[in-house]
Write a structure and sequence with these properties.
205 residues; 7 strands; alpha/beta; 7-stranded mixed β-sheet; 7 helices
Length: 205
């Protein structure tokens, strides 16, 4: 990463961190992960998509740890990453057995605990998809694919409202396919929240 790329990603990370800290600073569970039927259905579907054999898992954008707790009950080792220190503090209380890192996914890289049997990206990619960091976002797909073990599973779950947003969410899956992953399944969940539904895509290395 050259200095210009580093400057772009640092500025975008600052803006995203500030936005997320404002959201989580207002109140606990601002997105209703623990209370909204739509979110509960989304988390249940993500859990059902996990591989049967799960020694290690990476959660990208863990927020306050609602899905982390589910992962930790299934996997021997869980690493969870988020850009908001406020959200991470709550996640640590909810699922203390997981390992947490504060970081920006456009620059973060796993340490010695990778690669993983599962990598989970739930409602996070559209926060990274910004014009100022387009090249870095494009590079992310190959980097994230490399975090999987052979036959490891990638789980994508992103909300959309309308055909245009749905096509945009499908493009995330297509870019992972271009990075060498194979589509296993893709489903639009029945649950809805204010016109928003969830596209769940499962891919393997």
């Amino acid at each position: 990463m050259n200095w210009l790329s580093g400057l772009r990603t640092a500025w975008q990370a600052y803006k995203t961190r500030r936005k997320m800290d404002r959201q989580f600073g207002r109140r606990e569970d601002p997105f209703g992960y623990g209370s909204a039927p739509y979110e509960k259905a989304r988390l249940e579907a993500m859990e059902a998509a996990l591989p049967a054999r799960l020694e290690s898992a990476l959660e990208c954008g863990c927020a306050e740890g609602h899905f982390t707790a589910r992962l930790a009950a299934r996997a021997g080792r869980v690493t969870s990453v988020d850009i908001s220190s406020i959200a991470l503090a709550r996640a640590k209380s909810r699922a203390p057995q997981a390992r947490y890192e504060e970081g920006d996914l456009l620059t973060w890289a796993p340490g010695e605990d990778g690669p993983y049997d599962a990598v989970v990206l739930g409602d996070v990619l559209y926060y990274l998809d910004r014009p100022g960091v387009a090249a870095e976002f494009d590079a992310f797909f190959g980097r994230a694919a490399s975090w999987l073990r052979p036959r490891g599973r990638l789980i994508l779950a992103h909300g959309f409202a309308g055909p245009k947003e749905e096509a945009h969410r499908r493009s995330f899956r297509e870019r992972f396919e271009a990075a060498g992953l194979r589509l296993v399944s893709e489903t639009t969940l029945d649950s809805e929240r204010g016109g928003v539904r969830c596209l769940l895509s499962v891919l393997e290395l």
